[in-house]
Amino acid sequence: MARMNMLQAINHALDTAMAADERVLCFGEDVGVFGGVFRATSNLQQKYGKARCFNTPLVEQGIIGFANGLAAQGSIPVAEIQFADYIFPAFDQIVNESAKYRYRSGNLFNVGGLTIRAPYGGGIAGGHYHSQSPEAYFAHTPGLKVVVPRNAHQAKGLLLGAIRDDNPVVFFEPKRLYRASVGDVPESDYQLPLGEAEVVKEGSDITLVAWGAQIEVVEQAVEMAEKERVSCEVIDLRTILPWDVETVANSVLKTGRLLVSHEAPLTGGFGAEVAATIQARCFLYLESPIARVTGLDTPFPLALEKEYMPDHLKVYEAIKASVEF
User: Fold this and answer.
1) pLDDT tens-digit profile of 199-209?
2) Which residue among 12, 80, 97, 130 is the active-site one?
3) How far apart are CA 14 and CA 48, in angstroms?
């Protein structure tokens, strides 16, 4: 074990994957000597050479088109999009090419070795072009997997799992936690399963579902609620697509209440998918309406970021409203 922050854990995962398989390549804007804008790829070019860790032009569509080509020919590319907000120029390549490549060829060809890394979310005073949470766009696309870690230990294990998965994976990293989340991380090679949620804390009165940086926010709200003797079960979804319906449904059958929280705006956010599915599965067991605590239906603001964010106080108030309904 070693104490690492999330950036160090991601760097360690990339180093581990590149050491274990020479087909693994990482590339993106300024990822070479500079190590990327957040330094996630520091020292990898020095260790593995410019053929396996290199800079690309500032063209996101080109980065993913190039990655699709590499993956189709047997390489294992890990493409970095500098901020998740910048992923939209590459949207066509991801949803129309990466996601459909295997299906349209009848499995004669695939880009299953592709992983796309992107820092997402607010909390760093980045304004509307450096703070968005676009996971729901990609969750609407069969053929992809979408993964979001909550801490350093999860980041390394899930990233190694993503790189070695047989499907293209979009891996969103909560940038607010890059240096804030510090924990014990095995220095050995380990993988965490994709598609499986984790029950972070067991409880009996209400189920709270979140992912990424929002887990920490939910846990702060739970501390407040439990002082008033409300027993909360906390589930980290970890994988948005495919998401673990069974774990969430079984929890709600026990607690009778569900609250879903995410940073992305309310309308069309992935919380709506969770709410609709659980309502259908657990309708006769629900003691109150399913609650969503999310970002607002506005562009992400700079000056009013704290008002926009779904913080622990908003989650706490929603827990109380659900339990007292």
Assistant:
1) 999 999 999 99
2) 130
3) 11
